[in-house]
């Protein structure tokens, strides 16, 4: 049962007016309209707008098909009218908490307005944007004309994104408390910048978005992105995609079972391209504040030069539904590396603030794209950087950095964040496991992991930046293989490295070990088995004893690999699920107490 502003879904038919004289046609029509509105809300919440059929509406409402068509020309017109009626039930005043209380009291209505409406016609989307614009106008009036309008848009966007996430997950009961906490949090953490930010002066030239992929799957994804930008994802058909890609329908189905599956892969690919454009620029900048400014510039420049890709991630992902939004979040999660220094600087910072700032930036980008086009997106880099930096640097310093001309500088010789990120990303972990046994090409890895080549290439690039893998020439001319640099190394091989190279390698392995330990302890798997080993044994030995201990650790490692090989053979025969284990062996010299 779904509760709607017009009653519970199962009780809508009972609201039919009793037959007989004395009822005006207008009264009968209004009663039918309200029952259809309730049926529309219930069906869209259950099935989604695209899957809602006329028969679903007539069955729930008890309104005949004939009467439906006397009231509305089609389902889209009925949904637009339902949206108008739902928005009329939302509070016009009372602030964020009043809106949150409305969402708790009418979660189905709120979900239709804030989540499902994006899958409607352009008229529906425009009506929703007009309603959000009215909320922004009231907020602007409350703050005063001197308050930067982009800050107002970001504040409202933070509320919208927080509400959408809870409505998608069915946890809207959290919203009143979250919104009550958010208002003072944003006011204190993100005050207006003391000096105006450079927001509207720079426009990025439009880049070329062409079908340049030779791989059929990637060509399909590129075609989907282009068609969805022109037609809207909801109205995009497989016929249009294959026509644009210049392939047959059977070729499409060789790679994807549905348009929805292709969209998720397209979001994967688009996210990989963005991450590959942003993180290198971010990491090439020595200090964190300016790295954020550089990263935001790279992000919005990349989107600004690729209007179709920007439309897919910023607009059409909403129309495609909750699964697409979840996939977008997953695809762009590596960009959270830009937040890592902030979390270390202020570990007590509420997670709600990070969510709010990200939501505000998303909404700013959505609105700028819809109103002015993709070429206007680069101008958002200063305000986006300011929103990220202000809670940690203060308004004055954050404003200076946001207005600074971004200039990437040389990266450090060892990037622990890159190594840590590689250890935390499951796909990169799987890639390292595959490369530990053999060198492989991108397409070989993509086939084995069943992921698009562009996604695998993005993760290989990240592993390469962390010096965890390297490119080597294959046996055939022009073939590039990837080789893991995390394999076993003998003492002789290690000794041929220079001192800086040895220290660099040690730093990488230390980061991997530290990340593994933190994950295991935080997840409480570390002590879940009594057979786990944790040994620290301070010793004092002579030179011969040191070499004997080194040989002992090497023998233990070799024995461990033999145990793993036998276990693998048994699991292949039995089908038993593997247990993820880390075996860490360490033996090293430390300074004596009288040297410290």
CATH class membership of the largest domain: Mainly Alpha
Share in β-strands:
under 5%
Termini Cα gap: 71 Å
Q: CATH-wise, what's the superfamily of the largest domain?
A: Tetracycline Repressor, domain 2
Total helical segments: 27
Poorly predicted sequence stretches spanning 5 or more consecutive residues = 410-414
Largest sheet: 2 strands, antiparallel
CATH fold name of the largest domain: Tetracycline Repressor, domain 2
* Amount of helix: 55-70%
Radius of gyration: 29 Å
The overall number of domains is: 4
Q: What is the averaged pLDDT score?
A: 86
Structural category is mainly alpha
Report on this model:
By secondary structure, the protein is mainly α. The protein has four domains: 3-83, Homeodomain-like (Arc Repressor Mutant, subunit A, Orthogonal Bundle); 216-403, Orthogonal Bundle (Tetracycline Repressor, domain 2), CATH 1.10.357; 412-532, Arc Repressor Mutant, subunit A; 536-596. The protein has 27 helices and four strands. The strands form two sheets. The chain has a two-stranded antiparallel ribbon. Strands 3-4 form a two-stranded antiparallel ribbon. Strand 3 and strand 4 (480-484) form a beta hairpin. Helix 1 crosses helix 4, helix 1 packs across helix 6 (107-114) and helix 4 packs parallel to helix 7. The longest helix has 32 residues, at 543-574. The chain starts with a strand and ends in a 22-residue tail after the last helix. The relative contact order is 0.06. Mean pLDDT is 86; it is low at 410-414.
